[in-house]
Amino acid sequence: HIWSTLFRPSDALERQFAQLEQRLGGPHTPYIGIHFRAGDQNSGFGRINGETDLRGSLNEVISLLSCAHYIEAKLGLPSTTRWYLAADSDQVLVLPQVQTWKESGKLILRPAGAKTHLAAAGVVPPTGSEGLSSSHYQRGE
Predict the structure, then answer these.
(1) What are the phi and psi torsion angles at 55 (to 5°)?
(2) Which of 93, 104, 130, 133 makes a 20 to 30 Å CA pair with 140?
(3) Residues facing 87 on adjacent strands
(4) pLDDT mean for each 10 residues of the chain (141 residues)
């Protein structure tokens, strides 16, 4: 397919995926993925392209962890199933629930490192995003 030819992951990205796969238990091991988006302001990026992006609060992370627990039970997954938390803010690390699950080995987090905001790096924002406030994004408009 032309898509896979044009948009092939770089070797560095493939290595990151392979390392993450091992941290999650290896190939074909089920895991639950959790994505928390704090927004640009909460992630230390400030205003991007003249817009302020405020999204979730840290309380949502606790709800997401509870949801992962529920899904694990509902799907009949073993209690050894790992959860991968992708978050754009290191503030999630201060939550006692996150620390507890991480220390137990159940919760896997992305490795620490520099973050790059695509819009700040020169990517044009989506068409029509000009003039929308963060409340539009929060409501999913």
Answers:
(1) -125, -110
(2) 93
(3) 36
(4) 76 84 94 82 50 67 94 96 88 89 92 56 48 42 39
Dump the DSSP string for 84-125: EEEES-GGGGG-HHHHHHHHHT-EEEPPP-----TTTTTPPP
Question: How do strand 107-109 and strand 31-36 relate by DSSP bridges?
Answer: unpaired
Q: Six-digit token pair at 42?
A: 């909460």
Q: Is the pTM of this model over 0.85?
A: no
Region of 8 please: left (phi>0), alpha (psi -120 to 50) or beta. beta
Query: Can you tell me the distance from the alpha carbon of 85 to that of 58, in angstroms, rounded to the nearest whole number?
Result: 13
CA 112: distance to chain centroid?
13
- Mapped onto helix, strand or coil, the DSSP state of residue 9 is coil
